[in-house]
Prior knowledge:
The protein is α+β, with helices and mostly antiparallel strands. The protein folds into 2 domains: 2-112, no CATH class; 136-187, SH3 type barrels. The protein is 29% helix and 18% strand.
Amino acid sequence: MATEATMLERCGSKCELCGAETELSPFVVAPHTQVTVDHAAMLCDTCKSQIEDPETMDANHWRCLNDSMWSQVPPVQVLAWRQLKRLSEKEGWAMDLLDMMYLEEDVANWAAIGMDDDEEKPRDVNGVELKKGDDVTIIKDLPIKGSSQVIKQGTVVRGISLADDPKLVSGKANGQSMYIIAEYTRKK
Ligand SMILES: [Zn+2]
């Protein structure tokens, strides 16, 4: 709940894309899968349903991006960029806005990656694809399943392997082999 409370405070209880003051819920921005303050936006049902089902997209609703594209919040920037990108195929105004938009490099990478919805590859916290043999740093203390130990934030895992589940990688930390959620690592 703490995450949601922080997010509600961030957005002032308004949809972070269209500003609607209605019931909001966190929307995780792909390829991320966990609701965190850094990876999710608070959205109204209208924005959410049109993002999830682009067929139902009402171009006029998305005029709101005129304002929200200037958000300082990365997940909101990513959503705005992707919606403008989709709209720009048909709407000249969306293309103009897209041209004006500026994203930091890692935010731009994140925005571009998520456009491929069916790409199932393990990705680190920045959305960078992880490959066999990569070295990664653990970005937060992680409890080890079935024990009271934790892998400390900052631990380096060298030469990871991939797992069947694309959300996981495997590697050795604290002298033991284990599976690690890819999103809790940063590629070195
Ligand atoms: Zn909205």
